[in-house]
Design brief:
Blueprint: E1 6-14, E2 27-35, H1 36-40, E3 52-55, H2 78-89, E4 95-99, H3 106-115, E5 125-129, H4 130-138, H5 147-155, H6 168-181, H7 183-190, H8 205-225, H9 233-245
Parallel strand pairs: 1-4, 4-5
Antiparallel strand pairs: 1-2, 2-3
InterPro entries: RNaseH-like_sf, RNaseH_sf
Length: 246
């Protein structure tokens, strides 16, 4: 399989929480294209003006800060979906989308938003998960893989995000920095064909929500089943019911 020529580092998040109008939270897909040559030369321009943004539907005032966006039904308008594909098409192929923990968050959202209009990525554009790459490269699954911990461990820099600007754009820059810190092993990993997937292989958001709810139910029931055996069964029932609603 041919070597990757373009890396699209991306992130999806809520922007404009401060002073947003009418209780709406604008959600954006942000993409930073990086050429193979720039990555290998360690000459990536991290200027934010080089980051392209694509608008999703806005979330109403029921949005909860910190809640995974996989819990919302996000969609592109048809013109935005077509603009996204045209943007990606303008870069050398083969190409790969890069996101941290993308297979359980960003990629399902993108797949669903494109599928609404009968669209998907071309065969020359695949996806990969930076989280999985770093796990394999480090070879120590006992490490913490929360992004701030990974960033500090890999780059030897302090993870710092300005609360007013949010995490969307800083995390894109940090993903590029992680790639740079692991450059040779990262390039070697991503060039292996089996480490890159078709967008259509990831689960849709509604499938992930169903799985997450099932897993949560199992954990909560097991927790209370192992609780004090002297506790009345009816009391356990109401505690389980309350926790499942949270």
């Amino acid at each position: 399989m041919s070597k990757v020529q373009t890396f699209f580092y991306l992130n999806i998040g809520v922007s404009g929480l401060e002073g947003r109008a009418h209780g709406l939270s604008p959600v954006k897909l942000c993409i930073k294209p990086v050429s193979r040559d720039a990555l290998l030369a360690r000459s990536v321009n991290l200027d934010r003006r080089d980051i392209e943004m694509f608008d999703f539907d806005e979330i109403d005032d029921q949005y909860e800060a910190g809640k995974s966006l996989i819990n919302y039904d996000l969609n592109f308008d048809a013109p935005v979906a077509r603009r996204l594909l045209a943007y990606i098409d303008a870069f050398p192929k083969p190409a790969v989308l890069v996101s941290y923990s993308g297979c359980i968050q960003n990629y399902p959202i993108i797949r669903s938003a494109l599928a609404r209009h009968g669209l998907t990525l071309p065969d020359t554009v695949q996806i990969c998960d930076l989280l999985q790459a770093i796990r394999v490269i480090e070879g120590d699954f006992k490490n913490s893989y929360k992004f701030p911990d990974v960033y500090e461990r890999v780059t030897k820099k302090i993870y710092k995000v300005n609360g007013m600007e949010g995490k969307i754009l800083p995390h894109i820059k940090m993903m590029v920095e992680c790639s740079d810190a692991l450059l040779d092993k990262w390039i070697e990993w991503v060039d292996v064909g089996r480490n890159r997937l078709s967008l259509d292989t990831v689960r849709l958001p509604q499938e992930l929500r169903k799985k997450n709810n099932t897993n949560k139910s199992s954990r909560v029931i097991k927790k209370f089943r192992n609780a004090d055996s002297k506790q009345p069964t009816i009391l356990k029932y109401f505690k389980i019911k309350k926790e499942l609603k949270q």
